[in-house]
């Protein structure tokens, strides 16, 4: 359907509504809940810096809960799409807690509602469910740092996880509250959101976006930390403006809670709220811009080593530029009203989540894969994966900016005939982009089975995780290492980050492996 409400002659023949709406919702659930969030925080943070068996359990539990949410449509075949939706309450169908939709929602509520387990002597409190997984990271970072690891000596990636954990711990309760209110409306006949009974659907949007916009930073902050970590090691330079970057991370945490309503500019929200939320949204571009400038400053005049992790990190810097510029249009009320619900939004979102997050995950996986597995991947296949992914990603979503500016709506299966050609091009490019990940899968699977054994520190990096064997032994170090300096001592003669005492020795520290 075109923007003026008229039906167009051209119609797709493969998937028809309401099935298309179901598949799109499944796609979003799978990628965000079962992919992006566990991948950035659960996988990379746990395996590279903050390993913990309980966190591994939380990772698997969240995957199980998300899988049930994805499967709810298959479990509930007899209901129409309008009665299956559990995200937005604008169609309040009724269900019981034990049908397909209700059971999936119940499991998901368990994942986000149950409280933390109390602390035991000599052990920090740990969360009982994944929504409080952030508490585990906070407790680990605050109480279990190595001797000498002051706050000013933390690797920048750990700071990014710390900031993301603050948001995760505090914001997740609001989506739990929203889901609980939806459950009360649908199961017990209450009227939080049912306008026919005195409720207000806009209230749900406020509760939902008060969580979900901070959740974007739960995903992107670890990506920022990963990129800066990789850039520092492969540029042989300290992270530029380290203290300002840390301040920017914490500023993003604070500001992420006061920008949610820019998602409601066209929803019927009171007009007097537009300007304050527009200003707050513009304000958050300052700390995110600081992170971008820190990345540029880190690689400036550095000794760049263009291996696969570095290529993906540099791609994130390039994508952040496009993401930041286009985000300005969506933060301003006049242009947001024009571009709302178009492919311009889709392109911008993917430059944030895929161009920033997924590319950063790839950089982190290629960077820490030798440490985690003890094997090295094929550098040629890694660079091939990067080239295909970078070119196809930008070709796909740069085209979407143009289509969206021409008025192409998202979430529709019928559109203007003059946009058919470009939509076909975008569809072909998107399938090729998806196929490019086969190179990554083949490379990782092959390397995991028969890749060459790697040395302890193939990147000659300075941080502690690289000062033990690859893959690490149980407990990582025979005795706790002692941190004596900045995590990126490149270019400073005789400087080092940590020292490791020999087992059974006199206690004098040895030089860490691979110091540059």
Structure in a nutshell:
By secondary structure, the chain is mostly helical. Helix content is 60%, strand content 2%.
How would you describe what is shown here?
The structure is a single chain. This protein has 516 residues and is mainly alpha-helical. The protein has 15 helices and 4 strands. It has helices at residues 19-49, 53-75, 81-84, 100-113, 133-143, 156-188, 201-235, 242-255, 274-283, 285-299, 308-331, 333-339, 343-373, 379-405, 420-450, and strands at 116-117, 126-127, 482-483, 498-499. The strands form 2 sheets. A two-stranded antiparallel sheet has the order 1-2. Strands 3-4 form a two-stranded antiparallel sheet. Helix 6 packs antiparallel against helix 7 (201-235). The protein is globular and about 70 Å long. The termini are far apart.
